[in-house]
Amino acid sequence: MQKPVRKAVFPVAGLGTRFLPATKAMPKEMLPVVHKPLIQYAIEEAKAAGIEQFYFVTGRAKNAIEDHFDTAFELEATLREREKKELLDQLQASLPAAGQIAYTRQQRPLGLGHAVWCARDLVGDEPFAVLLADDLMVGDPPCLKEMVDAHAKVGGNMVAVMEIPREQTRRYGVLDVVSDAGKLVRAKGVVEKPEPAVAPSTLMIIGRYIIQPEIFRHLGEVDAGAGGEIQLTDGLDKLITDGQPFHGFRASARRYDCGEKLGYLEANVALGLQHPEFGGALRELLKTYL
Predict the structure, then answer these.
(1) How many Å apart are CA 44 and CA 225, to the nearest integer?
(2) What is this structure's pTM?
């Protein structure tokens, strides 16, 4: 029987250079999409998947994330005095329970693999999820919930994937596919940012992972890979070499690449149009710009 996936790691130590100057003093994970920051969408997705422990790998100038998931006594008292119960309920519902959150620091920006490795003592000896907040996944069922349900049947390691044009493979990690059953794709390897001519497939990894704890040993031993960083994909490739099952999962949810300016704008427009309060008004407003 597979161990349940109860823990999730959120690597949030990045500098957010693609969104400067907005991210000079504010973490990119706190950039709002409509009325919620990116990191809150990721936490809500993890909650919906049954995650019980939330571990943040932070860096300098990330205190706003800790404050966001803490009680704001003065704000809550003011809302209570002004009888804004709906807003107060929304704030309180967004908070994990006491003891569910922990933080650790990545002192130097050595890559995603290194950031995940920094959470090794928090995760311990059980499978865990990794969520990258700037990959905003929107849909029902939520992406990680679908993955957790599939993982309970096949075990091993799993990543969310989507098809991309071949000329874009040099920007992402892609799978070396053995078999394709639609939702689930079995892979024999992962290649980080291959050139289009030699890319083994056009299935790119999205920022959702379910990983076995043995990866921490490999991440502690691997050398810097593509971009001079410790790549998470290199650690995943080692797990495949160890004989662990590895699957890609085509989620039903839609991905918005909020690590890029255009993708971030698209997410705000798309989710704004879906908003029950002002979606219709936004649709009419947008017509004036077309």
Answers:
(1) 32
(2) 0.92
